[in-house]
Every structure is written in C-alpha cells, then in structure tokens.
C-alpha cells in the first residue's frame, strides 16, 4: 500500500433535486470522521478498561470558496435551509471512494476582513448505513 497525498480528491454532493454535482473545484479542505460509539463495560474486578463497540457513525465537514455559477457550490448548498432532503455525499481519493447519505446541517458563509468569501458545511450520517470505503 502506497502513501499518498490528498491531491486530486473529488467531492460530489446531491443538489436538492437529487442530482449528484461535482463541487470539488470549490472545496478547499474537508475532514471525514467514521467513528464507532463505545460503551465502557469495565467491572470493578478489572485493572484496565473493557469496551463494547456500538453504533457506527459518519461525519463530514467541508469548507470552500463561494461560487455562484450554475451547478457549483452555492447552487448546491443554498437550499440547505429551505429543504429537508437527505443528500448523497461522495468523496473520492486515489481510486478509493466513500459515499454516505447525509443530513447537511448548516450552510455557513463568512466574509473575512481581508475580503475572502468562504463557506463551511457540516454533514452527519442520515440513513443508518455503516460508512464503508469502496
């Protein structure tokens, strides 16, 4: 297995109509979290922790640059506040891909004092399917 950078990654997100749109050109960075909940089941007779693995979860946060061209980030994300639709989010890096059905929680727009206009969107797993890399 080779060590690789994240260069050339692809991020695609459903628009509110369910069409997957590649918004990679607008995404500047992202983070993926595919955690498992844990339950501590350590008895008083133990000197170290015992745990059970519980539910799987998926979280994805993406940040980007405002782009209001057709089918780009603003067109895809601006309906987060006015629609309650689950969206497919697909991340592809070097032939590996992860697709999750997600709830997009916020569309946070920021205009900094230097003039840049950026956005941030946190996403959470929506459908109970375990996040699995393909």
Structure description:
With 134 residues, the chain is mainly beta. The chain is 4% helix and 46% strand. It has a single domain (10-40, 50-125), classed as Elongation Factor Tu (Ef-tu), domain 3 (Beta Barrel), CATH 2.40.30. The chain has one helix at 73-77; strands at residues 10-14, 20-22, 27-33, 36-40, 51-56, 59-65, 87-93, 96-104, 108-111, 117-125. The strands form 2 sheets. Strands 1, 2, 3, 6, 7, 8, 9 and 10 form an 8-stranded antiparallel β-sheet that branches. A two-stranded antiparallel sheet has the order 4-5. The protein is elongated, with a radius of gyration of 18 Å. It starts with 9 loop residues before the first strand and ends in a 9-residue tail after the last strand. The model has no long low-confidence stretch (mean pLDDT 95).
Keywords:
134 residues; mainly beta; Elongation Factor Tu (Ef-tu), domain 3; eight-stranded antiparallel β-sheet; two-stranded antiparallel ribbon; elongated
**Separate helix tally:** 1
Distance between the termini: 15 Å
| N-to-C series of helices and strands | EEEEEEHEEEE
CATH class: Mainly Beta
Topology, number of strands? 10
């Amino acid at each position: 297995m080779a060590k690789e950078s994240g260069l050339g990654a692809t991020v695609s997100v459903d628009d509110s109509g369910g069409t997957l749109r590649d918004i990679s050109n607008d995404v500047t960075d992202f983070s993926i979290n595919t955690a498992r909940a844990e339950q501590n089941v350590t008895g008083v007779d133990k000197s170290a922790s015992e745990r059970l693995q519980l539910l799987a979860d998926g979280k994805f946060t993406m940040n980007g640059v405002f782009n209001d061209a057709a089918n780009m980030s603003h067109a895809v994300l601006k309906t987060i506040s006015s629609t309650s639709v689950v969206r497919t989010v697909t991340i592809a890096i070097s032939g590996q891909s992860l697709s999750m059905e997600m709830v997009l929680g916020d569309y946070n727009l920021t205009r900094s004092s230097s003039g840049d206009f950026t956005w941030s969107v946190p996403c959470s797993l929506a459908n109970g399917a375990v996040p699995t890399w393909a």
